[in-house]
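Re: folding output
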Amino acid sequence: MKSTNYTINQKTINCLFGVSVNEINAFASKENSIIITDEILYSLHATKWEGCRIIQIPSGEQHKIQSTVDHIINQLLNWQVNKDNFIIGIGGGVVTDIAGYVASVYKRGIKLGLVPTTILGMTDAAIGGKNGVNVALVKNMVGTIYQPDFILFDFSFLKTLPEQEWISGFAEIIKHACIKDEAMLTLLEHHTLEEFQNNDNMISDLIEKNVDIKFSIVAADEKENADRRLLNFGHTIGHAVENLCELPHGNAVSIGIIAACHLSEKINGFLSSDTKRIADLLNKYHLPTSIDVNHKKVFELLQSDKKREGASIHFVLLNKIGDAATKLLDINMVENNLKEIL
């Protein structure tokens, strides 16, 4: 087991790597905890949580909505859960987002622990305190920023992770490499998805590296006023494509990354050879780099994006691999420059 403490806005988050979820009692007792998980994960691992109070939610992004939150809160009220209790979200990004949102608003905030069970959850979704729900086709439109007390990384959950979830998670890892760590991008070029899937030490080291990158960014800018915006690289177009085409999150982000690379070429002088390098890496990890989508509808959705300011939008561009910056761009200009690829 490895334990690392990170501090965000004077709140210490204890990250525990390589710990079994069976040992969660050391951090939050069964009597004091309510586990939120999804139906598929529960069916695979039910024996791990015998004797715990468990709220199961339906699996899938389509259930990341306010009615799911209402269902959970009604159950908490029925159980007379109070501020001394722990909400523990065990699952992928949908579960940890909802668990964080519930913990932040129930009785104006109760204790929170997270156990991410996917690559995407371990490297991105469970880190940084962002949580919430979708509204119609707009992702994460309602939510809060609320930091957990602990995050437990039980790598055994990856043994039952579907292939598509591995692929989707590596989009976020490649995103981190693009914006902050060219050496990690080179490492990924020298290996394959299958190698990481079959080598416990390799994947645990890679996850810890990504946790460090994200915490370092969030610790400096919790509320997304500056550098935290860099984490949206690939997500501005990606979120719109994800909802329109019902794609896995990582697949949509991968397409968004390439769109951002092309825009970086036009605006920042980013090298086309580096766009190809990133596209080749995404393809190597079985991620798409293009899609047939209604261009007009993509940019209609961008009108509702949280990063929009008037007729402009905050868009993350690359200066070079490992060096990103956010620019406030006119939405019409973005639309015109991306007509060739969307």
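--- second protein (sequence, then structure) ---
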Amino acid sequence: MQTQNRKTEHLHIACSENVQFREKTTGLEKIGFKGMDLEYKTLPEINKKEIDLKTSFLGKKFSAPIMVEAITGGCEEARQINRDIAAACEELGLGMGLGSMRAMIENPAMKETYFVRDVAPSIFVAGNIGAAQLLNYPIEKIEKALCAIQADALAIHLNAAQEALQKEGDTNFKGVISAIEKISAKLSKPVFVKEVGHGIGFSVAKKLAKTKIMAIDVAGAGGTSWTGIDSLRGNKEIGETFWDYGIATAESIVECRRAFKKKIIASGGIRTGLDAAKAIALGADLCGIALPVLKAQQAEGKQGVKKYLEKIIEELKIAMFLSGVKNLKQLKKVKITRNNR
């Protein structure tokens, strides 16, 4: 019940309070596209209608390099949220992540708040467990939870900063790298690792590269602050100190790409298709979005989610058109330059 209540509180705070980073930004706003000697290609020499956004991730096809990040699961409000998001993603051919399965493992009756396969039978769906919980649950129990929701992969979320600010936080991270190595080698589904909004740096990415995980989701600083959310739950004095803590998204993409040669997901403050284009040009393969999708769902249900994601996709196409590239492979080769805006 404690886990369920915490998830409900997280949702209510995320929807009703300003939980964005305050001073620290993603760093993406400092990056401009550079083609030849121009800021952008005013003569792109391509037909925008021929731009191809298709890609794949862990064996699943995506119509565009966009996925909805893990948001919730394990409380009554989560059921409709996840179903609306999943249904919109199914119609658009995008992927999604589910919230931590901890509540479901503790109380199997919570399965229905995660299960979306009846409305999204074909898209990529990731299950989710916290890194600290790997020390408490046997692999067989996690495998069973993944099978129950018919997930395609397991995301292991790293949230040391958030746990440190939670009044009931689990701050025993001793042995987590070994646990990640073990589960990524033994689980029947692919495993990837994600932060929750405070970034992953070079040294951690280098350690993760030695395991069998298939991807890193950087979830950098500059978007939603989970230290901020948990400070609003009752640790405000210390929470203020760590509200803007973490590695900016742009920096985290670059650092992880240096250390990790498999798939990179860019998330943490991705708010437009232009942000997504910049992140891919920096080295990401996919881009993840969470809070704006949640707010779109709260405002207009499935249609709100679909409308917002369609906007992101169209913006990404325009960014690619203005860079003179017609597919993601070409976008990855677009030169970027840092400016002083």
